[in-house]
Amino acid sequence: MKNISRRGFIEKGTVATVGIGSLPSFSNAMNEQKKTVKVGVIGTGGRGTSHISNLLTIEGVEIVALCDLTQSKAENGADLCQSAGRNRPTIYCKDENTWKELLEKEKLDCVIIATYWDSHAAIAIGAMTKGIYPGIEVPAALTVQDIWQLVETSEKTGIPCMMLENWSFRQDNLAALNMKRLGMFGEIVHCHCAHSHDCIDHWFFDNKTGEKKWPAEYLLNYNRDQYPTHSVGPIISWMDINRGDIFTEIFSTATASKGINAYMKRKFGNDHPNANLKYKQGDIVTSVLKTKMGKTLVINYDMQLPRPYSNRWLLQGTLGVYDEEKASTYLEDKSPEYNQWEPWKPYEAKYNHKWWSADFSAQSHGGTDYVMLSQFIDAVKAKGPTPIDVYDSAVMSAIVELSGISIQKNAPVPFPDFTKGKWKTNKPYFGID
Ligand SMILES: NC(=O)c1ccc[n+]([C@@H]2O[C@H](COP(=O)([O-])OP(=O)(O)OC[C@H]3O[C@@H](n4cnc5c(N)ncnc54)[C@H](O)[C@@H]3O)[C@@H](O)[C@H]2O)c1
User: Which terminus, N or C, of the chain has the lesser number of Cβ atoms within 10 Å?
Assistant: First the structure.
């Protein structure tokens, strides 16, 4: 976010997001823009390393410190920095609490947190209390109690807290958001999304040995939507959640757990120790969320059956529908044939969001990670609000625990209002700058 003024305007080839949002309370528009920011990365595994690579391509970023449980992973991150012609960052690597020493000793402007899920909230709270912006990998926290602590710490310290939900920044999703804000879909009534991503053979388990990796423990011990934020990220802006509307309840249900055992037996044989374990996690979780204004959202967790990747985003209103999986849209009074799909791509180009003013496709995840991180870094430089705030981070993350409670009770569960009533007056914000 280059400047803090908000305007709806049309630039060459890009459409700025429509609508005027009020500044979130964290905004500090009077601060001088910083030219360089000092960044620390805690957790330099797969995702942390990818963040380091992207950060090295963003102007004005100085990676000064890295922390991991494994020395070689942190050293690898430091090698990347040196190979890019930068100073070698200081390495912090003793135990799972060494991040505290890093936050204490380094004068950071922001910290990227890409550790295991159970440490995200504590590190982010530690950062905010030291005046450091946290950019937290998904989910921001695992329990509603920890989420409230994130919200309260952010409010108390005035430090914005952003969950790094990259799919909110996808080019197609942002174009759909522009169209929604122009009223092209009419009043929004219903959305659907999924995280259909077979991760059993690489992220949850080692595909050579079948050994459990750290996320697999969650499949053994919980039955819930383990990973809702990628699918819900773009939807909360499409549905104006926390800004004019709010989720009121969630009702989740899960299938039996068949996929993990079937995969283990198929790949490693019936006698593999992980082939006969009893996994609590059902293969498909379906959650229905209701909003105060009468909208509904259906989310599917789907990460342990063999299938191609899909997010199946769908946005439906009184004037039309966008279907990501079909790469199609239908707009009443606009589409050439009555009730017939037309291709999405021309709309994506026409209503391109200005964050996608260049081709970033050489970067990770087709450029989406770069767009997200550069917006986060711009916010840190400006000491202004982050593009995803603590309330949106809270709503996305809360689905993890709440879906599990709902499955266990076989009943709807109330959804907390993390804004404490501010949703009634908050104006649309994401993507408007
Ligand atoms: N947004 C995306 O597209 C995306 C993709 C993959 C992973 N992720 C998220 O990124 C996070 C990390 O996942 P990953 O796949 O990189 O896992 P990983 O196992 O590859 O890396 C995690 C790293 O964190 C380190 N770590 C754990 N606890 C620590 C602590 N207390 N202090 C210092 N280091 C610690 C581990 O040693 C490990 O190297 C997770 O939250 C995951 O959900 C997001």
Answer: N
Residues near ligand 1 (Cβ within 6 A): 42-48, 67-70, 73, 96, 99, 114-117, 119, 137-138, 166, 214
In which domain, by residue range, is 271 found?
168-360+389-424
The pTM of this model reads 0.94
Between CA 223 and CA 318 the distance in angstroms is 35
The C-alpha angle 97, 43, 100, rounded to 5 degrees, equals: 25
Q: Is residue 134 part of a domain?
A: yes
CATH number at residue 176: 3.30.360.10
Where residue 210 falls (left for φ over 0; alpha for ψ -120 to 50; beta otherwise) is left
pLDDT digits (tens, 9 = 90+) for 159-184: 999 999 999 999 999 999 999 999 99
Number of structural domains the chain divides into:
2
Closest by Cα among 237, 235, 244 to 314 = 235
Assigned domain for 272 exists: yes
Q: CA-CA distances (angstroms) from residue 283 to 84, 116, 195, 222, 380?
A: 42, 22, 12, 12, 39
